Amino acid sequence: MRLYAGICGSFPRPPELRRAINEFREGKIDRVEFEERYKASFKRVVRLQEDNGLNLLTSGLLLWDDLLRPFAENLDGIRLGRLLRFFDNNFYYRCPVIVDQIRWTRPITLDEVRGLSEAASRAVKAVVPGPYTFLKLSEDRFYGSKDKLADDVVQALRQEIESLSDLADFIQLDEPSLVDPELGEDDRRWGVELVNALLEAVGVSRDKLLIATYFNLDSRSYSILLEVRAGLHLDLSSTKNADHILMEEGYSGDLLSLGVIDSRSIFPEDPGDIAGRVEKLLEKVSAKALAISTSSWLDYIPFEDAVEKLKTLGEVLRRLEAGSR
Amino acid sequence: MSYELPRKLVTTVVGSYPYFPEALKALQLRKRGERGREYEELVRRAIARAVEDYLSAGVDVVSDGEQRREDMAVFFAEELRGFRLSGLVRIFDNVYYRRPVIADRVGWDHEIIVEDFRYAARLSKGRPVKVTLTGPYTMYTWSLDRYYGDMRKAMLDLAEALSREIKALVEAGARYIQVDEPALSTRPRKEDVILAGEALGIMVGKLSNVKRIMHVCYGKLERLFPEVLDFPIDQLDLEMKNSNYALLELLKEYSFDKELGLGVIDVHSERVESVDEIMEGIGLGLEILPPEKIYVKPDCGLKRLSRETALAKLRNMVEAARRAREELA
Ligand SMILES: [Zn+2]
């Protein structure tokens, strides 16, 4: 079993990047200067991950205003709508409003992932929104048919994923909507089918794809999730009995990412306790590649607390590696 | 000075009012840590102007306009023991704010809004002044917890701390105590609702001769039922206009018989509701409750509106309640 440690998705913007974005948007600095300052922040975040011993790196998604934004801004047929609450967080995303046929015309995150693979000395993971969450969080004013819209979203995401496949060791499709406790069973099954349709269509090896679910895990949704034909990321921090569910139902597949570090809390976490939890889980679950991770994106806590999370994650990895020796 | 409340369809507000320039200046001083005489004087002038607007609109039960508070959670976090402020956390796009951090055991060691209550009451020409406090569930969920790691323990301490403030308010003469729990409607789990009720018990459970109110707004308010029916409160203050009075059906289903704060004004729109439109809303409320149990008020605090709009909306609201009373008589 290969063991990885890496964050689930985003890392909070460093203070200097927050400032640079404001200054760029206010026209105080030009694009060249902005790019330079962005690159410096980007390198800082990659280095933070490496310095803390993580071996599965993300770009930190530092320019993403929310999970859907780069896609809402760069796919044809979408304009930005109102701010809506992102699940149960004090965080808001701009609702993509679909006003025309959705078309992928050029790579959207390719430069970012290329930058990451060049800067990183370890394995890297790219992130894209999954098709179901994309649909759930958007507003359709064009298609009027769920299936037709779904087809075009799947095609658009397929092309994006294929554009990344040479550069990323893993590609993660974020699907928090799949485990939304509000969701009915039929919708959840439809969602899993949609994800599988994309996995079927995409010309990328399945063992490098994973579906990330977060903010919830319950036994009903987990049993449906097991039908996803790719790896899984699970949030083991948002619901109290998540570890238990995983132990009961088990897992065996190529790739499993365990969100054991709580990305929405700043309550101190003990690396020893977490390593112990993971070891216990490993009695019941197995995967060719296992990642330990933050439960979700790190947008919900301040930068300095997110740095603490990296330290904890690195320390858990060291303990697990020491334990298996 | 005494003021006689109407027996039916009392008009009131949820709490906040658009900031007067004096309040904005005071908030800036507060941010810089300058809480001296100038700051206090500015806050007082702002409160006086809010009360003046309420009186000129004819609202029966008024508030201090929450002119001292920029953010309802941060304000109490700054005043209670155990809190500090976090580093910047993103709320959307590139917009960040500081969240309260529970860094130590939460407690109460000084009066927080008692003086503002006293001051507003002095100016309200006998009209009752409602006091508003941010509830434990909202305080907890809008904060980052570094100390408890246990929602229940934290909330019970928060409730205990706030109960001390409430006690001081009641001693100062407050008779309308409102606990604001906007977070309770976002995505409450059953156990959250029950816990919020337990916390209310600590805060207002033993009070008598006091109107105990809980305000909740926007979201899945239906999730609070049926537990909320057993909360130790006299009045449930709800947003109704914004959701087109859909909740009334639910209240009917549960044979709701507490008092109802009936939101008849949309606080997110600058459009001023007409008197007829507001009367229609009141009429819908009257289909399920007698007029003695209905308080007519905006959906939520008015602070996001312009002052002109807020005042115009309140005027029409008061007029609508007056005409509705006339029709009943
Ligand atoms: Zn409200």
Largest interface, with counts of residues having CB < 8 Å to the other chain, equals: A-B, 29 and 21 residues
Number of domains of chain B: 1
Return the average pLDDT of chain A rounded to an integer.
96
**Shape verdict of chain A:** globular
Number of helices of chain B: 10
For the largest beta-sheet of chain B, the strand count, sense and barrel status come to: 7 strands, parallel
Which CATH-level-2 architecture of chain B? Answer: Alpha-Beta Barrel
The total domain count of chain A is 1
The helix/strand series of chain B, from N terminus to C terminus, equals: EHHHEEHEHEHEHEEHEHEH
- How many separate helices of chain A? 11
Basic shape of chain B = globular
End-to-end distance of chain A:
13 Å
CATH level 1 name of chain B: Alpha Beta
Q: How many beta-strand elements of chain B?
A: 10
Fraction of residues in helix of chain B: 40-55%
Q: What is the string of SSEs of chain A from the N terminus onward?
A: EHHEHEEHEHEHEHEHEHEHEH
Give short descriptive properties of this protein.
heterodimer, A: 325 residues, alpha/beta, TIM Barrel, eight-stranded parallel β-sheet, three-stranded mixed β-sheet, 11 helices, B: 329 residues, seven-stranded parallel β-sheet, 10 helices, 10 strands, binds zinc ion
What is the fold's blueprint, element by element?
The complex is a heterodimer of chains A (325) and B (329).
Chain A: E1 2-5, H1 15-25, H2 31-51, E2 56-57, H3 69-74, E3 76-85, E4 92-103, H4 110-119, E5 123-129, H5 131-136, E6 139-140, H6 146-164, E7 170-174, H7 185-201, E8 209-212, H8 219-225, E9 231-235, H9 242-249, E10 251-261, H10 271-281, E11 285-294, H11 303-324
Parallel strand pairs in A: 1-11, 2-5, 4-6, 5-7, 7-8, 8-9, 9-10, 10-11
Antiparallel strand pairs in A: 3-4
Chain B: E1 10-11, H1 21-31, H2 37-57, H3 72-79, E2 81-92, E3 95-107, H4 114-123, E4 130-134, H5 136-141, E5 144-145, H6 151-171, E6 176-180, H7 190-204, E7 211-216, E8 235-238, H8 246-253, E9 259-265, H9 275-286, E10 294-298, H10 307-328
Parallel strand pairs in B: 1-10, 3-5, 4-6, 6-7, 7-8, 8-9, 9-10
Antiparallel strand pairs in B: 2-3
Helix pairs in contact in B: 1-2, 2-4, 2-10, 6-7, 9-10
The structure holds zinc ion (ZN).
